[in-house]
Design brief:
The chain is 67% helix and 2% strand. The chain is mostly helical. It has a domain of 79 residues. The longest helix has 28 residues. It is globular, with a radius of gyration of 20 Å.
Length: 266
């Protein structure tokens, strides 16, 4: 939690300075980054096995694709943001548990921890949270869950988000209020530079270029599975359609200024 400060005789001393001497701060960043990459791979592999019952080898391979995505690589210079990908699989599992068992505690706890860790990336995680819910809800109805129960779960989802934010408000609310008072968010339309050919190039290995194309590639295996999913007949049709629409929606986020502003928040 890089934004937490300690007061041990040295006001505004970074927490890292308490445990690591100044000459070793770079080593601390390397160690912390390595640990986060390991946690990222572990939580995703755990989610894939628990949610889909995959073999260990396949779950690990897919988790490695997730861990080595271009988004991860470009955020290596900002290790605090890597926590988001550690928590993303846990949020996905919490949504599944919410719909399956109507259990709210895992989701509330994960949301609160995500906000405490880094409230800015938590904003994006909450945006993804509703996509996860849409996918899980469609999958649940495809397997016989009544629509009214899904709607009830959506109400629980809203309550969980509100509760998680309330529990963690002390970490982000002062910063948000200060930003609104001194550096209000820009309301002018954002410039969209990415052309569709650049969006497609961003899905190819070595096709991405910094500040030129979207960070879409997450490994060839995941890319092949993404394009193969619509043709897998064992998956319910409504799930396949929802998956395609979700992918298109995310790619439109690289083209539409309004969607970019929504994802980026402040």
């Amino acid at each position: 939690m890089g934004h937490i400060l300690v007061l041990l005789g040295k006001p505004r001393e970074p927490l890292v300075a308490v445990f690591w001497r100044r000459p070793h701060h770079a080593l601390f960043v390397f160690v912390a980054t390595a640990l986060k990459l390991g946690c990222m791979c572990s939580t995703m592999a755990w989610y894939l096995r628990r949610r889909f019952g995959l073999w260990r080898t396949l779950a690990f391979a897919l988790a490695m694709c997730f861990t080595c995505s271009t988004w991860t690589i470009t955020q290596m210079r900002n290790p605090q943001w890597l926590d988001a990908l550690v928590l993303l699989p846990l949020l996905a599992w919490s949504v599944h548990v919410l719909i399956r068992d109507r259990r709210c505690t895992p989701l509330v706890a994960t949301i609160a921890y995500a906000v405490v860790t880094c409230w800015y990336t938590a904003y994006m995680l909450l945006a993804f949270l509703f996509l996860f819910f849409a996918m899980e809800a469609i999958a649940a109805t495809a397997h016989g869950v009544e629509a009214r129960l899904v709607l009830r779960c959506f109400g629980l989802l809203v309550v969980c988000v509100a509760t998680g934010l309330a529990l963690s408000a002390v970490t982000f609310l002062p910063t948000v209020l200060q930003m609104l008072g001194t550096n209000a968010p820009a309301t002018a339309p954002m410039t969209v530079d990415a052309a569709w050919r650049e969006v497609l190039s961003g899905t190819v290995i070595f096709g991405w270029q910094r500040d030129a194309r979207p960070q879409l590639i997450a490994g060839t295996l995941l890319l092949v599975l993404l394009f193969a999913l619509p043709f897998v007949r064992s998956v319910p049709l409504r799930v396949r359609v929802t998956s395609v629409l979700s992918a298109v929606f995310l790619m439109l986020g690289t083209q539409n200024a309004g969607l970019q502003l929504a994802w980026s928040g402040f």
